[in-house]
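Today's session is about reading a structure prediction critically. Students often jump straight to the picture, but the first step is always the sequence itself: look for stretches that repeat, for charged clusters, for runs of hydrophobic residues. Only then move on to the predicted structure, which in these notes is written as discrete structure tokens rather than atom positions. Here is the chain we will use throughout the hour.
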Amino acid sequence: RPPPTPEVDKKKTTTPASTLRLVGAVTTPRLAWAVLARRDTPHDQIVLHPGEKVDGATLTKIEHNAVYVDDQGRVERLEMTEAGGPGGMRGVVSARAKRRGANPPTTTPPPPPAPASQPTNPPITTGPSPTVASSHIARAEYEAMLAKGVAWLAGVVVTPWHREKELAGYQIDFSGQRADLKKIGLLPHDVIERIDGIAVTDTPKVTQWVNQLKNRSAVQVELLRDGQTLILNLQVDKS
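Below is the predicted structure for this chain, in token form.
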């Protein structure tokens, strides 16, 4: 049973000033995460799961087009709009109350390019064709993994990854204790760009893909590893 929608402090959430913007969100019965960005540094994006904090506020709930944050007992709602955002995602209008000392709000459409001084990822060099690797997992083990839902991501750090200042994928980092991730072919510092041909920055399509995971017999992941493109084919065996 989904948790009830938090009560919103309407007096506070109608304040036009904001410090955060919602770049994208994925919510399913099993998995949910949101990508937020600070308005004064729009390319500095943060991936959060329910219960995690950003700037002292706790992400309490994720919906299809909005998230709720609890800022010292004051619940605020950040809503998405249809305006274009960075990396192909939808831009947002935030209902977050202005924090003391925060920068003045910016406007949508998307923010201007970051200054030249902002660090960027090094250029990627790829060979004539991507490397292809394969791995296998039993159906029962695969379904048990999905049944864990968002708990399966515990201990995994997900960081937005940019190419030429545009969101292009997500880098994953985890400790050596996650043998299940290594078994399906993933390694720390891998940058995931596409899943079954879908760009991971395309939030609506990723949401549909996650909803259909249980019935899949194969999953293909396109990622960058040590600057090289790798196609990882995961086969779900019947037994």
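Discussion point for the tutorial: The mean pLDDT is 74.
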